[in-house]
Amino acid sequence: MALAKDQPGVPVVVEVLTSLRRHGVQPTDLESLIRPLDELDVRGFALHLPLDEQGAGTKVKDVISWASRLTDAGLSPHTLWVSHLSAAELAQVRTTLSTTTIKPRVGTQLWHGNREHFAVNATVLDVHEVAKGDRVGYRQQSAPKDGHVLVVSGGTFHGVGLEAPSVSRGLTGRGKAVARTGLQAFGKAASPFWLAGQRLWFAEPPHMQVSMVWLPGDMAAPEIGAPLTCQVRMTTAHFDEVFGL
């Protein structure tokens, strides 16, 4: 290892390859690590585990199996950093590996945050009354019924309308995915903006800095400057202002 040669004694954490199969040392490479790691300050080993598992206890077994492999290879696993384990799974690992310090990696929880402790709001920038059939937006979509078009802060620059591909599981999940695709084929897409407990629909795909949404005629139009609740994916969101930190 070049690091052992160039910077002997530098502190390192060695990641091993779990069933996630993203990064890490493979079991077949452990023996070749012994001599290079002797020249480094090994603080422990890291296991990046998957979110889902195939069968009960798979992730726990993965951690215990790796601890055994490391011990058999002569690499003392005195400290293991593990990710995506529940409190019960973490307790089980600590009980089984009682002589090893188990440290949970909690970056995902910190990054996503607890939604009970923060709120995301957009601002109403403009309000336009429309009649059924009126054309709006770049794509000139027709209003489905009488009501209003709201122009609100928050566009693709902020992460509105952006989402990562997801895995649909079970008939219900796949059915919802098919329904969303079908609605989008007819120009209908639910927005992340809410007013008075009701989710609003995009009038057209979000613009870079703003979005245009339909407001049904039976709902009172908000004042310009009023806030709208916004539910966005925290890993793709970019905010104009952050308060309270």
From TrEMBL:
One of its GO terms (molecular function) is catalytic activity. Gene3D superfamilies: Alanine racemase, Lyase, Ornithine Decarboxylase, Chain A, domain 1. The lineage of its organism: unclassified sequences, metagenomes, ecological metagenomes. This is Unannotated protein. InterPro entries: Ala_racemase/Decarboxylase_C, PLP-binding_barrel.
